[in-house]
Amino acid sequence: MAIFAKALRPKGKQVLFGAALTVSFAGATVAGDLTTPVSDPVVVGPERYSDDVSAFYLGLNAGYGFGGTDRFGLRTGGGTFDVGNLKPSGTYGGIRGGWRGVVPATGGRDYVYGFELGYDFGSLEDTVSRQIGTTTVTGGSEISDVLSLKFRNGLTNKSGSVLYFVSFGLVQGEVATTNSTTSGGATRAFEDKGRRNGLSASIGAEHQLNDSWSITGEYEYVQFESKDVVFGSGFSTKSTPKYSGLRVGLNYKF
After folding, report:
1. What is the pLDDT along the chain (254 residues), one digit of tens a residue?
2. Residue 186, Cβ neighbours under 10 Å: how many?
3. CA nearest 102: which of 58, 160, 165, 54?
């Protein structure tokens, strides 16, 4: 019996191996326990427009207007004389504020819509001259202080961080039309100035930088209503100012 008991007594190395094996199986059982809840890792993504279903914003912007056309023809008692083509251009800057709403669209995108009120300072201007007989005739046009009310809408990309938009609106600006004639060293100058209504359209994009700030860029087209301008000299012309422009801006949402 003593010999049989000695044979059954485990040696030291066997005891350590058995203990290690037991701990390994116990650890594997805990790691593979299907009853233990598993949480997904936190993923930080870009700010989406749909994070706020509606919001107000204020912004600053600046632009450059170019490519306008306004044919200047001077009508007199002796007929109509084509002086040239006015192309108002120049820099402008402004402030704006608006409201926007967001609704889900197909494909993981968002539809964004809203209204924006803006004011632009600065001016776009041009002059053109022509020699008619012994008289130098000069015509000019200047656009400044433009107020606008726009409806803006568009779709975001799938991540919801970039909005591609189009806008349509009404504008009202200060339009000055000038005419001068120089003959025999004497110059006579005339001006017609007043506020005039018009229309605008634009296409662009807005990128969310974070939950408060975004940057914008757009191409716009602005056209004011035509007007028959009668100068004090009895001369007259038809004024139809318009221009295209590139505008960039920064918005703050609150």
Report:
1. 443 344 434 444 444 334 443 434 344 444 444 454 555 444 445 567 777 788 999 999 999 999 888 888 888 877 888 898 899 999 999 999 999 999 999 888 999 999 999 999 999 999 999 998 888 999 999 999 999 999 999 999 999 999 999 999 999 999 999 999 898 889 989 999 999 999 999 999 999 999 899 999 999 999 999 999 988 767 889 899 999 999 999 999 99
2. 7
3. 54
Tokens standing for residue 26:
């116990």
Structure token digits, residue 234: 């009895």
Determine the Cα–Cα distance for residues 101 and 108; give it in Å rounded to an integer: 17
- CATH assignment of 49-253? 2.40.160.20
CA distance 41 to 192: 68
